[in-house]
Amino acid sequence: MEAALKRELGTSVLRPTGHSGGGCISQGQSYDTDAGRVYVKSNSKAEARRMFEGEMESLSAILQTQTVKVPKPIKVIDVPGGSTLFVMEHLEMRSLNRHSEKLGTQLADLHLHNQRLGEKLKKAGNTVGKSGGQTDIQFVDRFGFHTVTCCGYLPQVNDWQNDWVTFYARQRIQPQMDMVEKNSGDREARELWAQLQLKIPSLFCDMEIVPALLHGDLWGGNVAEDDSGPIIFDPASFYGHSEYELAIAGMFGGFSNSFYSAYHSKIPKASGFDKRLKLYQLFHYMNHWNHFGSGYRGSSLNIMRNLVK
Ligand SMILES: Nc1ncnc2c1ncn2[C@@H]1O[C@H](COP(=O)(O)OP(=O)(O)O)[C@@H](O)[C@H]1O
Ligand SMILES: [Mg+2]
């Protein structure tokens, strides 16, 4: 593995540092190289390349907005023998604490970035953003992403859709339901989902949703800080409803009041927010059910029971 890394990075120095460990999905290790310190995630699952390519594209997209700090992605590498590596810039991180409020502000800026591009485009009579250089980010008027991204190791269907509610029902919940069906054939889940689908449009009355670039897996384990401010990492990005982002944040904690108040001072809660948040948590509970087993079944069914009432 280290020989492949050296070759692919074109570095003569490759020295492991004391930083190693892992998240919920992959193993990690830092190395000093000719070009500085890098962080290397490795995973031997068959899906690892797809997962890391999605992470690389997500980090690139967030990086381009210049709103929140993320590690700069470097390369996805297949190692002879089966595992896949993802190399990125190493960042010296500690737990989010001092910079919570700043994360709220910067996350809102990330979510507003595409909308602001759209506003600029309108003002300039549809010329700005089209005539710019190749690397300019373009306004995105649909929901999805140009590649599959994985929340955990399971792929998300990111095919472009004009309508968010359709996107969320068909490309987020339905694939999770299909996996449950395949693994356990849960009749109760199937019946509740049939009822909930009829109810979903009523949770979105009079909402105008502008696609927002999302981190997509923003739980407490994927945020940190350094002296300069907050850092987010391990994204599973796509263009979606900004409210979706706060769903997993609320499930496992780790975000203070100052984070939420800073965020909502830029993106105020719209009417019906709390119910939609539950609807968005349904995806994450089901995704956990499909990753980690039926310990998450009860929460998934409860959300559906409450929403169809
Ligand atoms: N770029 C990085 N620089 C330094 N440490 C990192 C970097 N990325 C991740 N880590 C460390 O690895 C841990 C898990 O990373 P993460 O990307 O969330 O892995 P997983 O995909 O397995 O959840 C983080 O909590 C952090 O301690
Ligand atoms: Mg993680």
UniProtKB/TrEMBL annotation:
Signal peptide: none annotated. It is an enzyme of class 2 (transferase). Keywords: ATP-binding, Kinase, Nucleotide-binding, Transferase. One of its GO terms (molecular function) is ATP binding. It catalyses: N(6)-D-ribulosyl-L-lysyl-[protein] + ATP = N(6)-(3-O-phospho-D-ribulosyl)-L-lysyl-[protein] + ADP + H(+); N(6)-(D-psicosyl)-L-lysyl-[protein] + ATP = N(6)-(3-O-phospho-D-psicosyl)-L-lysyl-[protein] + ADP + H(+). Pfam families: Fructosamin_kin. Transmembrane segments: none annotated. InterPro entries: Fructo-/Ketosamine-3-kinase (IPR016477), Kinase-like_dom_sf (IPR011009). Residues 9-28 are annotated as: Disordered. GO terms for cellular component: cytosol. Its EC number is 2.7.1.172. Belongs to the fructosamine kinase family. This is protein-ribulosamine 3-kinase.
